[in-house]
Amino acid sequence: MNRRLGGLLEQIARGDQAAFAEFYELTSRRVFGMARRVLIDVELSEDTTQEVFLQVWQNAAKFNPEAGSPLAWLMTISHRRAVDKVRSSQSSTDREAKYGASSQDIDHDSVSDEVGSRLEAEAVVRCLETLTDTQQESVRLAYYGGLTYREVAEKLNAAVPTIKSRIRDGLIRLKTCLGVS
């Protein structure tokens, strides 16, 4: 498979549309799957998949077979694109929240605030229960225990990248469960 994909990338670098179509046919499900795992949202995953293949078309000549397999190269591009989308989306949400918070005059109703806070806390607890045990434990240690990724990794005897993935995936599931966009 990798040998075939490498040959197709060489042809794509020369502008061969048929090779690109075959490359897409052989790999698009994997690219979409990667995007979907990171982004969850179907439309964002489809957009990201399209961007990945545009990048393949434009940069096929940059593929270096000595640096890794064609599939590894493609999946790296896919993962980076998906993570960039998550970061971009989060950055946009943060900007909107910051602007919204700074542009409002707030009248405080302490009873209403207290009820709202309790309802939100109950929703978070309920949604935490939808996470896997490992995600729950990692998220609780990081956010409720105030531990860093490294400290969580040491406490759970796991690699830091594994902990980062658990926490990221857990937060994405929490966000979905809480209906936060």
Describe the overall structure.
The chain is an all-alpha fold and 181 residues long. It has two domains: 2-86, Rna Polymerase Sigma Factor, Chain: A, CATH 1.10.1740; 116-181, Winged helix-like DNA-binding domain superfamily/Winged helix DNA-binding domain (Arc Repressor Mutant, subunit A). Helix content is 80%, strand content 0%. The chain has eight helices and no strands. The protein has helices at residues 2-13, 17-39, 42-59, 70-102, 110-128, 133-144, 149-156, 160-178. α2 packs antiparallel against α3. The protein is elongated. It starts with a helix and ends with a helix.
Q: What brief labels describe this structure?
A:
181 residues; mainly alpha; Rna Polymerase Sigma Factor, Chain: A; Arc Repressor Mutant, subunit A; 2 domains
Short description:
The protein has 181 residues and is mostly helical. It contains 8 helices and no strands.
Percent of residues in beta strands?
under 5%
**Can you give the helix content as a percent range?**
over 70%
**Biggest sheet character:** none
Average pLDDT score: 84
How many strands? 0
| Head-to-tail CA distance between termini | 39 Å
Task: Calculate Rg over CA atoms.
Answer: 21 Å
Count of runs of 4 or more consecutive helical residues: 8
CATH architectural grouping of the largest domain: Orthogonal Bundle
Q: Which structural category do the helix and sheet elements fall into?
A: mainly alpha
CATH superfamily of the largest domain: RNA polymerase sigma factor, region 2, helix turn helix motif
Whole-number total of structural domains: 2
Oligomer: single chain
CATH class of the largest domain: Mainly Alpha
SSE string, helices as H and strands as E = HHHHHHHH
Characterize the overall form.
elongated
User: Which spans of ≥5 residues are poorly predicted at pLDDT below 50?
Assistant: none
